[in-house]
């Protein structure tokens, strides 16, 4: 197990290096040398722009710029935002808890609800299963940001049951923090539940058709015990893999939902700063996102291996 | 049975949470703690006064700093740190009489030396607004309560500069320090509460108890950054905010119909900017008949009514009512007339004209489509140049478009001359010069107000600009707050908010 984890960590470092390099080059090329002009605004003179380019090191070749960024990053210094002067590490540290406050509950809620629904549909079949098939197709088809707009308008604005927008940190008020998360978590969970439950259902149906399940039944074990032990365990590998994929997908998918609910998370940070070309901040978000993705995949692999010893780690 | 009980319990918990009013957990527009909650579209780049900017950025600076002069809501320049001011005859020496009772929040006191240090820091800071102070050659300090700002040439907009982004004064003890970017130290009505602020997300200001100006009506101001228009509107409708800028007419109308108060003002002119007046990129644009044809071919009123819901005023000139140079008859300088457009194009020999036309997500596609359709009906084919929103301004300023639909701020006659019209102006990317233009600008700079009208006539007759309208800008606020729109700014100044009677 330990060599496997070490191998994964080494490959993660290589991956991080490759992604940051390509991202840096692409972002620099996309900026087209206009960053200083965008920072200074439309009243800036050419002399001002030249000076700011020099101040920010943008007059150097892109490889030199990347090397300087990498040296700083290796020492824990991701630079400062060109547009707000804030330290990038600080900005990411501010945004990450917001995103995780949304994503982790989504994964927990999705996991619990999707496993429950998936198993129920697989065991009961009939009208329950058919209804779920229709609803899950519907949930998959509707974009989560649209669900978010609907929830914000109905439950936030019209009925005033939950805050329509905004985020409160748990240190300030645990109650307010939970209240601000209800709508975005719901908006993101609906699609995630549909996706994971479908996979769990299919896997569980497959398991229920296995000979050993029939053998267990013939030995007099109750349906509940069979489902909660053998079926759940054997179909959960699919479910957990799907949950891991959902988490990675939601990391990107939450970008728009964060905008809808004015949540100052990684998505908002990425959108705001990509559009205006704040390269240090965008690189910070990329480093954070890649690190999260690698860790989540590692955790999922380990959980799957623990649940199913047949899963090969080597 | 157990499952059913669990579901019922969860349902009861949800109902209890709802009944307890989760929505109130985040706060009301004007909470019990006396905080005024506003949304802002963008965070400031820095709190260093040398990096100050206009528009959406001004309130951040107004909260913590005092400007040298105060610009009232109607645009009138009034006293602030300077109680009196006077130009010499040549209008190159501005003598300011300064207050003597102003103390910064770090204990330093304000005097003419501090003003001089701030002006010098501003000039050295290479900030976005640095160009408006380029006429300043020095500051003389004959007495602690007297300063003389020396200009290389008259600057008709200089008093407004001292009342806005060019006039904020920071404590001398932090000038030049990198900490100033994040930790402002001024003498303004509020102090940034760093512990309750998150850069780029939320800025919380608490009352400065020692402010010389008396008491602002609120104990504090919270400015939440919300980049998404719909999120701002929802927050306003839900009562989470007291005020916020709204970027489009339909959302503004929706907010108004939901019971919010809508303030409207006109800050920009919007329409075609004929950058390529010499025909460098597109030779046809050198012909004034072509430029006029492109202008009269567009149904301005139709676009204003159909896309902007009639919120604005049709115009053909870049100056606004009340400003030097404004002539009412030029609001109808380019009446919609496809036949005239066809005739002009035929006279000029361009019956099958092609024009590259920038298209960016920064503008409503319905407007761009309308212009292209109007042009098509008179035989002009527009080739779309798709640019990302952040590419639009740099590309236009790098002279990569001969004509574009664009919005420019009506910053005042002098600023518009300097920034849009003069040969070196940043919005004259092809650096088109003309002796008539240079003469009128020079005369206006030296105090000949009539020269502005002559310049306007030149601009309209030669179709340097072909504005469509002065669109309204929208600011929605709760009924519990009285708000006065700020002249020339998209968002009100922090001084313009007060509890409603």
TrEMBL record, chain A:
Keyword Cell membrane attached: yes
InterPro entries noted in UniProt: BPD_transp_1_N, MetI-like, MetI-like_sf
SUPFAM superfamilies, A to Z: MetI-like
Principal location listed in the UniProt entry: membrane
Residue ranges of domain ABC transmembrane type-1 in the record: 96-304
Family: Belongs to the binding-protein-dependent transport system permease family.
UniProt name for this protein: ABC transporter permease
Taxonomic source organism: Kineococcus halophytocola
TrEMBL record, chain B:
SUPFAM superfamilies (UniProt xref): Periplasmic binding protein-like II (SSF53850)
Name of one Pfam family that matches: SBP_bac_5
Signal peptide span: 1-25
Presence of the UniProt keyword Iron in the record: no
Keywords, sorted A to Z: Signal
Domain Solute-binding protein family: 77-387
Official protein name in the record: ABC transporter substrate-binding protein
